[in-house]
Every structure is written in structure tokens, then in C-alpha cells.
From TrEMBL:
GO terms for biological process: vesicle-mediated transport. InterPro entries: Sec-1-like_dom1, Sec1-like, Sec1-like_dom2, Sec1-like_sf, VPS33_dom3b. Belongs to the STXBP/unc-18/SEC1 family. It comes from Paragonimus westermani. This is Vacuolar protein sorting-associated protein 33. The lineage of its organism: Eukaryota, Metazoa, Spiralia, Lophotrochozoa, Platyhelminthes. Gene3D superfamilies: 1.25.40.850, 3.40.50.1910, 3.40.50.2060. Transmembrane segments: none annotated.
Length: 789
């Protein structure tokens, strides 16, 4: 069943087997394992009648470490020991992936530690969820290390990377971008040295550097380097499934159309073993219908063939194809049903309006929106002009005597509820544009990614607040606007916060504060003085500096997004009429309908040495800006291809940051010289330009002092390019803080269309979408019900 794990660049089934063997080894320690058979299995609940069977000699609790679960264990052991007084049973705890200090203290306080025979930790950290994806499935990791200052997830992530290296060999090169990514890289090297020191006395275990390396490089990206992408609505098939139902451990649960009950959810496995899903998942949803139609015709042709075959050899061949045909038909039925539900979800007014506020893909669509906007200028909207709505039948539906924007929130919300039921199909507008009526016009010309009117209050955000849309939807648009605009003006930010708190309540004050602390919703004036300090090397310390480093990186990327990153990295790709299948930018832009994520550009530069066509023009413009020392150094570095890591930055007082980050620069230079001396090609000038143009500290590490294994067959002498080989170059890409399914689709597309013959392995702390990302950063205050005297 898990054979599909071996169909990728690496046999991730070996990783699964290593976890399985370790778990079974731990079970062998307990009495009467019955060859790993289980006599009884049940969920641990707080039910009063839950007890172990009388003939059971050992009870093993496999738990996730939290206080509520440990409290359930305490209640169960207390009941069980009272009921089975004469029998002596052993109680064991297996904590996945670790047993926290708080849980240990809780057991001691409840005086249960004497009843528990043993407590084991099973480090199940990185799980293979597909043939090229390994995940911790911890979507709150970014919040834990950036806001809560909890580093346990990072430690477990590094533990998983160590196990990965123990199976597939060392990553010859480590390249990390962002403060937390640099911390992960350094921790990985340090823990690897500690593990090798511990194994020196054990001759049965080979050191990690003697294991044949099956990868060529590890790229580690901090989520802070690109916080915009998780906020955007995903448009791929798999991404939309995650947006609507969520995907966890490669499984989604589809709710029945008539009920939202958990017991009526249909469990669907989504991975590479399903050929139909493997073809659909990385496609923009606009292409899903044609693919399903093509697949359906192929299956129909096979069914027709089975009915017309008469010869015995042909009949035998058809019979052998029947199992595959049945599975193909079942998969088609499932994904056709999913596509129908997604179609209803995508083409709702809420989704389309939110998407139009985020981005407008085609210039033709923009012109159409502008045409409607121009046409509306001469049309008086009744809700804004104290007039009556006159439908075609001549009957007045609503009468507003005053401007609703000046009325109380209660009246405005009541009006919104009434208005939402009115369709303008009964009303006439010039040129016959029919729209669902809302207090705000249906189409909005301004979209955030293109930078249209991002410094003003967006009408759709105001409408969402008025109709009390889910707060995650409102925060999503507010954060996107803030990010794309380099922060919001103080007056606009205060207006948004005031409107939101008045409608949704004071309970969300901490949520707004968290978004400000992380840099997703901030005052642009507080960042005005640090516009050129985008590459300040702020490394994430154990405690205290992590939040500052995350906010600094997020705000630096935000301030540069509209001024330089969007153009220099070609993040927005205009549509073209040509059908060139070799146009890499157009193919990548299809994932987000015109937008290429910053994270994808960074991986593209680090793995392929990609450089946009606008670099030469950008450097020339910098040279002609004036006698500024900073700009002269910048232009010189751009034209000569030198690194922009530290030498061109100045602080507020005009002093260079070279002295402050000299240790980091020397470290990078020394590692680069080691790489060259070992025959490994360091970052090209193209990659160096792109990586250093994007805010966030850069770190490079060499793990192999000598090149061995498959990498040794690849490389020649110093400074030369790799020798072509039949086997693809395998690059592991690790995302600290989470990744979206659309980013995975974009990088898969990049590997498929590039000429470099490379494949990616994705390692992440968890999968994100806008809802889960903002939910992890939310901190709603729970009101306390006070009893009257």
C-alpha cells in the first residue's frame, strides 16, 4: 500500500520503515507483546466505565504530550487499579514525539508516577506524506517560535533532519535564508557532531559522513522571508481542497452536503498513489475540468473495448486490466465529485470578491473592471444617495432616509442583511451589467498585488466587516494590503482596528497585537527609517531575539515588495497570447494566476542560478541616481556580481554594518573556499544577487570535507560545472514555519520544465493556508461570565 513512497527521487519508504522498526523495538520491551499483536485497542476517554480487560497484563498509552491527555491517563489508572486490586498490571507511556516537562511534573503531582512502570519517547517527527514530501504536520510551528518563544518544534524538526541524514546520507551543502533557518542549519551541524561523537565507541554504527549521500544540497527557508504567500488564496486543485476542507497527513475529510456532522464526513486519501489526483493536484483549477473530461473519455473507451473483444488473447489482456479500470473509475467519481463541490466554492461571490481584491490576473479583465467602474461613475447607487431602489416592476423594495455610512453599526448590519437578499437582475443599469447587489460595488479595480490603491481603505474589507464575515477572511485581506503597501498609514490602520473591534468585539485585541508584533499588520511610519536596512544580520537567539528577527525580516520584505522585489524578481507575470510551452515564467505564474511566490524565486536562484532579465537595467538605474555612497556601492556590487551580504549596508548613523556582521561574512567566505577546494560549485553570481536582494540573513555550510558517493561522480575540479549524469540532481528544500500546497506545486512545475534535470524533496514543519496561518496567530480573549451579587 505504501509502495508509492519509493517512486520519488528518494525511497521515503526507508524513512517510514525506520520509524516502524524503532516503534516495534520499544514494544518488545513490554511483557507479552504477542509478536506485536494487540489484544484490545481503544481511544482514551474520560468515560467512567472505561477499564482494561481482566486478562491484560500491560497497558500501553501512546499519546501526544499535553496536560489533558495526561489527566485522562491519571483518571484511567485510578479507576483501573481500584477495579483490579488483586491483579498486578504494568502501565507504560509512549509519548510522541516527546514527553514534556510539564507532563512529567503533572504525573508527580497526581502521584501517578509510582504506578507508571516506564515512560518512553518515540521521536516520530518527519512523516513521509507523499513520495516527495516529508512533514511534521505542525501548522502552529511559526507561531510557536516567533511569538510564543517555544523552540520545541524547531528541536524536533532538526531531530527529523538528523534521522533523514542517517538514512539518505549527509547533505553535502547547507544553504539557509532567514534567521530561524540559519539557526536550524547551525543546530543541525552541531547535533550531527554530537551524534557522531556518541557513536565513536560503537563500531556497529557507521558515521554519517560515511553513508552514501543521495542528495546534492539542502535549502532551508524561514517562513518570515515570504509571509505573503500563505496569506494568498490558493488556486491549484490540491490547494483549494486544503482551503475548503483541510488536508492533514495526506488525508482530507469531505463533509456531506446536507450535514456537517463528523460521522458523515468521507475520508479521502490524497497522495501520489492515485494517478488521477497526481495529474490534477498541481494544476490551476481552471484546467481541472478538461483533465477530468479527458480521463473520463479514456476510461469510457476502455469500457467499450471490453464489450467488443472476442478473441481469447485480447480477452485475457482486458481481464488483466479490469482491476486498474475499476480503480480508475472509482478515482474519477471521487475527484469529479470533489471538483463539483470546489466549483461551487470557487465561484461564490465571497471567494471571487476576495480574489479580485488580492489580484487581477488578465489585463482584459482589468479593462473590463475599469469599464464597469467608469460606467458606474454616472450611476447613482441608491444606498449612497438617499434614494429609492426602483425595480422593473415599479415597486419600492427598500427606503433608506440617510447615508448608511453615518448610521449606527446595528442599523448598518441590519441593512446589509436585507440588501444581500436583493438581486439586481430586477434592476437596470446602463450597458446591461447585472450584479448581485451589495452596499459596495461588485467589482473592484484596486488589487493589492499590483499596488492599486493599497494606501486607502478598501471597500471590500469594509463590506466584510459590515456583514461580520469570518474574522480570518477580514484579517487575511488586511494583512495582504499591509504587506503589499509596506505597512499601512497610521490613520488607516487605526480605522481598520477600530472598525474591527467595534463589530467583532474587544476579544480580538491580542490578535491584532500579535499581527503587529510579527510584522503582518503594522504602521508604515514605524518602519520608515529602516527602509535601507533590509539585510541586517539578526540571528535568532535562544530566547528574546527570535521575535525581533522575525518581525525585522517580515517588515523588510514588505517595505521592499512594491519598490524593488516585485520588479527585480519578476513576481507578477503579465499574460501573453503566445502558447510557448518553454516559457518558464508563464508556467510558474499559472499556479497563482499571475503571481510567482518569493520563496519559489529563491529556490529557483539557489538551484538553477536563475536571474531575471531586468537586472542589467536595474543596476544601470542605480548608477545614475547620484553621488550617494550607499547607492554607488550597491550599483558597483550589482554590476560586478559581488555579494551584497554586508559591505554595502549602513545603519541610521551612516556606519557600515560590515563590522557587525563580519563574523557571518567571514564564515560564508571560508565555507565557500572549502566548497571550491572540494570541487563543489558555490552560489553563482546570479544566485548571489537574487538571494542578497531579498531581506534575510544568508548562511552557507559545508558538511562533507571530501566529496563522496554519487556527488563524487558528479563533480570535477574546482570552479567547473557538474558533469552531466543520467540520474537527476536531488535537492532537498526545507521550510521552517510551514509551506502551502501551491508552493509545492510551483516547485514541482519548476523541476519539470527546467533543463537542469533536477528533482525536489520537500521537508516542512507543516502545511498552511490563510485560515490556518492566521488562526495560529490569533489569540482571542475568553470573556469571563460574572455572577451577579
Amino acid at each position: 500500500m505504501m509502495g508509492y513512497l519509493s517512486s520519488g527521487p528518494l525511497n521515503l519508504g526507508d524513512l517510514k520503515n525506520s520509524y516502524q522498526n524503532e516503534f516495534l523495538t520499544q514494544l518488545d520491551r513490554f511483557p507479552s507483546p504477542k509478536e506485536h499483536g494487540v489484544s484490545n485497542s481503544f481511544l482514551l476517554e474520560l468515560s467512567e466505565d472505561t477499564r482494561s480487560p481482566p486478562d491484560c497484563k500491560a497497558v500501553i498509552f501512546v499519546i501526544n504530550s499535553n496536560i489533558k491527555t495526561v489527566d485522562c491517563i491519571w483518571s484511567f489508572i485510578s479507576r483501573d487499579t481500584k477495579f483490579h486490586k488483586s491483579s498486578s498490571k504494568e502501565y507504560h507511556i509512549v509519548a510522541v514525539p516527546s514527553f514534556s516537562y510539564a507532563c512529567k511534573n503533572y504525573l508527580k503531582e497526581k502521584d501517578v508516577s509510582r504506578s507508571v512502570s516506564s515512560v518512553y519517547e518515540f521521536p516520530l517527527t518527519l512523516l513521509p506524506v507523499d513520495y516527495d514530501v516529508v512533514s511534521m504536520e505542525e501548522p502552529e510551528c511559526y507561531m510557536n517560535y516567533s511569538l510564543a518563544q517555544r523552540q520545541q518544534d524547531i528541536y524536533q524538526f532538526v531531530q527529523g533532519l538528523l534521522r533523514f541524514q542517517s538514512i539518505f546520507g549527509l547533505f553535502p551543502r547547507l544553504v539557509s535564508k532567514g534567521a530561524k533557518a540559519n539557526e536550524v542549519a547551525r543546530m543541525l551541524v552541531r547535533m550531527r557532531h554530537e551524534a557522531e561523537s556518541a557513536l565513536e565507541s560503537k563500531t556497529s554504527n557507521a558515521p554519517l559522513n560515511e553513508v552514501d549521500s543521495q542528495t546534492d544540497m539542502l535549502i532551508i527557508l524561514d517562513r518570515s522571508v515570504d509571509c505573503l504567500t500563505p496569506l494568498l488564496s490558493q488556486l491549484t486543485y490540491e490547494g483549494l481542497i486544503n482551503e475548503k476542507w483541510g488536508i492533514r497527513y495526506g488525508v482530507t475529510r469531505l463533509t456531506d452536503s446536507s450535514s456537517e456532522a463528523v460521522d458523515q464526513m468521507k475520508r479521502v486519501t490524497l497522495n501520489g498513489s492515485d494517478e488521477v489526483f497526481a495529474e490534477l493536484r498541481d494544476q490551476n483549477f481552471s484546467s481541472v475540468g478538461s483533465i477530468l473530461s479527458k480521463r473520463s473519455k479514456e476510461v469510457s473507451a476502455l469500457v467499450t473495448e471490453t464489450k467488443t473483444v472476442k478473441e481469447l488473447p485480447e480477452l485475457r489482456r482486458v481481464v488483466n486490466q479490469l482491476p486498474e479500470l475499476r480503480s480508475a473509475r472509482a478515482a474519477l467519481e471521487i475527484h469529479t465529485s470533489i471538483a463539483e463541490k470546489l466549483h461551487k466554492f470557487v465561484y461564490t461571490d465571497v471567494f471571487m470578491l476576495s480574489l479580485s481584491a488580492q489580484q487581477v490576473r488578465h489585463t482584459a479583465a482589468i479593462r473590463k473592471h475599469q469599464h464597469i467602474q467608469d460606467d458606474r461613475q454616472n450611476f447613482k447607487w441608491p444606498i449612497f444617495n438617499d434614494e429609492l431602489i426602483q425595480p422593473e416592476n415599479g415597486k419600492t423594495r427598500f427606503d433608506f432616509k440617510s447615508n448608511p455610512r453615518r448610521r449606527s453599526y446595528a442599523d448598518r448590519l441590519q441593512q446589509v442583511g436585507q440588501i444581500s437578499a436583493l438581486h439586481l437582475s430586477s434592476c437596470k443599469m446602463s450597458r446591461h451589467y447585472w450584479m448581485v447587489f451589495s452596499p459596495i460595488p461588485f467589482f473592484y479595480v484596486s488589487d493589492f498585488l499590483n499596488g492599486f490603491e493599497t494606501d486607502k481603505a478598501h471597500p471590500y474589507i469594509e463590506e466584510c466587516i459590515l456583514r461580520m464575515a469570518p474574522i480570518e477572511e477580514v484579517l487575511q485581506l488586511m494583512c495582504i494590503q499591509s504587506f503589499c503597501n509596506g505597512g499601512l498609514k497610521q490613520k488607516l490602520l487605526e480605522y481598520y482596528k477600530r472598525e474591527l473591534l467595534q463589530v467583532y468585539g474587544f476579544e480580538h485585541m491580542f490578535t491584532l497585537d500579535n499581527l503587529d508584533r510579527i510584522g503582518l499588520l503594522y504602521d508604515s511610519s514605524t518602519n520608515a527609517g529602516s527602509g535601507m536596512l533590509t539585510h541586517l544580520s539578526v540571528d535568532a537567539g535562544p530566547i528574546g531575539k527570535t521575535q525581533h528577527a522575525a518581525r525585522h525580516t517580515v517588515t523588510a520584505v514588505s517595505s521592499m515588495f512594491g519598490t524593488s522585489l516585485k520588479k527585480n524578481l519578476r513576481l507578477l507575470i503579465p499574460p501573453t497570447t503566445s502558447q510557448d510551452s518553454a516559457d518558464m515564467d508563464q508556467l510558474l505564474a499559472q499556479i497563482y494566476s499571475g503571481y510567482v511566490p518569493i520563496s519559489v524565486r529563491l529556490v529557483q536562484a539557489l538551484s538553477l542560478g536563475w536571474l531575471p532579465k531586468t537586472v542589467t537595467a536595474t543596476a544601470g538605474q542605480l548608477m545614475s541616481t547620484g553621488p550617494s555612497t550607499l547607492m554607488t556601492k550597491t550599483a558597483s556590487a550589482l554590476l560586478t556580481g559581488k555579494s551584497l551580504v554586508s559591505g554595502i549596508r549602513s545603519d541610521v548613523n551612516g556606519n557600515d554594518y560590515a563590522t557587525k556582521s563580519s563574523v557571518s561574512s567571514v564564515s560564508v567566505s571560508s565555507h565557500q573556499s572549502q566548497l571550491r577546494s572540494s570541487g563543489v560549485t558555490v552560489l553563482s553570481e546570479n544566485a548571489d544577487f537574487i538571494v542578497n536582494l531579498t531581506p534575510g540573513a544568508l548562511h552557507e555550510e559545508l558538511q562533507l570535507s571530501r566529496v563522496t558517493g554519487k556527488l563524487g561522480e558528479l563533480l570535477e575540479t574546482c570552479g567547473t560545472e557538474p558533469v552531466p549524469r543520467n540520474k537527476a540532481k536531488v535537492i532537498a528544500v526545507a521550510f521552517v514555519g510551514g509551506i502551502t500546497h501551491a508552493e509545492v506545486s510551483a516547485l514541482r512545475t519548476l523541476a519539470a520544465i527546467s533543463d537542469a534535470n533536477l528533482e525536489f524533496i520537500f521537508i516542512t514543519t507543516g502545511f498552511l493556508n490563510a485560515r490556518t496561518f492566521l488562526a495560529s496567530l490569533s489569540q482571542a480573549i475568553q470573556p469571563v461570565q460574572l455572577l451577579p451579587f
